[in-house]
Amino acid sequence: MKLSARNVLKGTVKEINHGAVDSEVVIELSPGVEIVSIITKKSAEGLGLKVGGSACAIIKAPNVIIGVE
Amino acid sequence: MKLSARNVLKGTVKEINHGAVDSEVVIELSPGVEIVSIITKKSAEGLGLKVGGSACAIIKAPNVIIGVE
Amino acid sequence: MKLSARNVLKGTVKEINHGAVDSEVVIELSPGVEIVSIITKKSAEGLGLKVGGSACAIIKAPNVIIGVE
Amino acid sequence: MKLSARNVLKGTVKEINHGAVDSEVVIELSPGVEIVSIITKKSAEGLGLKVGGSACAIIKAPNVIIGVE
Amino acid sequence: MKLSARNVLKGTVKEINHGAVDSEVVIELSPGVEIVSIITKKSAEGLGLKVGGSACAIIKAPNVIIGVE
Amino acid sequence: MKLSARNVLKGTVKEINHGAVDSEVVIELSPGVEIVSIITKKSAEGLGLKVGGSACAIIKAPNVIIGVE
């Protein structure tokens, strides 16, 4: 499926922490560049996510805030 | 300022495209890993964003969808 | 691609209105049930969206507010 | 109250699953077309949601991603 | 209509700036406390928003980031 | 850090309720004007949030819905 979301970033699942309802998933995009997602545990299980497997982090561009130090 | 957002990703401004109201900002996180943000032109100007300058892409973890091929 | 988003609703493109930067896309999920999306014009063109074609409306569950009258 | 959100979709509460903090609410918009929302349990109780009752799913248009297979 | 969104903040419309597609609406919640919203121009017109009129700013709690200096 | 988010509202932490995974944080912007945020407990602890301390509520303008009664 092709998506309208401007950010479809390919990476590797580095870490999965399951809570009671939600799961925290860490995707490594490149060495040292990681993105954290929170999805429902039901979704994490449905996707069959496993540490070391491939996955994409998908983000709609208006959901990205820019910060400058 | 420290933020509750789980994703505060440091990078370099690679591209800025100003529309009438919104601006599209591309941040390079590492070679070949880019993230696109849409912010208001007023914000882009207020931040003084310039191609080549440093900037962070900030994303709350629940706004990240996971995809698996 | 399988997605973590809980809502992946199949439908038909009923209407596309292109603005300068953004496009408004109306997806008909069933007769009389429509959902409106705003995406960038660049995305709309990249997806090759056409009135009458198939498309999915994808929404993360925490982005849905419930209202009761 | 009238809302700026472009999607105010009327339906029937089909399922409510209460977690410790959050509740998952399934709204049936038409036969076979369902939308899942996650709200706080406190909100679900405050709204007096009941299976079989009427409810609206409210979604701002920029929160809808379009996918094409 | 009662809403699941935790933040339904009453105020007064202080400013409306119409763009080609989107409108920027500033709501004053109390003297000196303002919140800015971007909605489609179509929605702004449909709501009949006028400077000086009453309006609510509605925000789902997971969309609020916390910052500490 | 300067942010592109149009709403960076200064206030005082009025209440913190820790769940297993998430924390609910109430920020008082002015007497009687409060905003509720849900962040991960890990973030709440990382920020060192304390009742009575200063904090900002940060919201991107497209995440604010307008309602009119």
Beta content of chain A comes to over 45%
- Please name the CATH architecture of chain A: Beta Barrel
At the fourth level of CATH, the homologous superfamily of chain A is: RNA polymerase II/Efflux pump adaptor protein, barrel-sandwich hybrid domain
Question: What does the radius of gyration of chain A come to?
Answer: 13 Å
Describe this structure in words.
Six copies of one chain form a homohexamer. Chain A is mainly β and 69 residues long. The first copy, chain A, has one domain: RNA polymerase II/Efflux pump adaptor protein, barrel-sandwich hybrid domain (OB fold (Dihydrolipoamide Acetyltransferase, E2P), Beta Barrel), CATH 2.40.50.100. Chain A is 10% helix and 59% strand. Chain A has a four-stranded antiparallel β-sheet with strand order 4-3-2-5. The longest helix of chain A has 7 residues. The termini of chain A are far apart. Chains in contact: A-B, A-C, A-D, A-F, B-C, B-E, B-F, C-D, C-E, D-E, D-F, E-F. Chains A and D meet through strand 1 of A and strand 6 of D.
